[in-house]
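Anyone opening a protein record will find just a pair of labelled lines. A complete record is shown below as an example.
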Amino acid sequence: MSLLPPTLLLPQQTISKTGAALGLTQSAAAFGLKGMVVHGQSLQRSGMLEAILADPPADMTLRTWCHAGGEPTVGQVDALRAELRANRPDWVAAVGGGSVIDLAKAAAGLVDAPERTAHYQTHGAAIPSAALPLIAVPSTAGTGSEATVVAVLTDPERNFKQSIRHPSYMPKLVILDPALLKGCPPSTIATAGLDAFIQAFESYTSRHATPFTRALSELALARISRALLPLYQGSGDAASDMLEASYLAGLAFSHARLGLIHGLAHPLGARFHAAHGLVCARCLPAALTFNRPVIRQDLDDLKARHGLDVEAQVAAWLDAMTLDNPFAGQRVADRDALIRETLASGSTAANPRPVTADDVDAILDAILA
């Protein structure tokens, strides 16, 4: 087995230190003096956006775009694409959670594409190379989007959630500043952290994993297992650990892909409108039971090297962080469509054990029980 993935794509530069976000505009000047900063509402309310933009280089002009909130939709991407075409920047910076980064990533990548965003999500059309460099500054520790070539988008009209991807979508510059996690709501810390942990786990067991990606996944698993609950309970010392571990998990799954949990989580999340990390966590026990015969050694290795029991750890977090089950008492009206979407997912294709329609049907019974 090769140590490396067939193609290795990494951010051009990563800066990891407290206060680094305040140097965003100085670092961005390397890409040009006209920038667009995409951000969330909380960054503006906290005053951090004003601080980040306070001292730009001479002659730099900046525009801002505030994400309305929630998971990014194809319509929001189209609106931002129109803004970028009307006021063409030299670079786009995304400062926020995974939704903000995915929104900016897709808009910067598709700015000159001829079709609407939804076309590239479902029609298999060739995605053009990104024309604008992306700077990613995460304010949550979870999605790992700052280290991937993927943007996950929803289409509310079709009740559909799926990613688009292109090698050129990898951010040129990543800034990891643990100060941005200060004030992050505990519920967001919980669900984002669960997402990062399960991304690390699925990339560790993926059929496309290599020794390189597995090393990143294992580092992330071990670090998150120690840091998530302290961060949730208010320990600022854990912010840097969680931010770096989420980044490593992103690098790992960007190359190794994920598995059945994420194959299920996207269509389930689109239907139940629950936080992605929570959906993943609630899918884990049934998917782990299904995969256990082929990943037993991986589970034993994690326990031997780190004292980590993946299923017990997630169950303990769900209990300690008092996260409700979004599936309790629910049913899926369009079950056949959900099964088809799960089987069509690239994440499901990377699952360590082949998955059939009957398998998904049985797993859904376990999840919704």
User: Anything to note?
Assistant: The beta strands are 13-16, 34-39, 61-66, 91-96, 134-138, 150-155, 160-165, 173-176. The first strand starts at residue 13 and ends at 16. The domain at 185-368 is CATH 1.20.1090.10 (Dehydroquinate synthase-like, alpha domain). The radius of gyration is 20 Å.
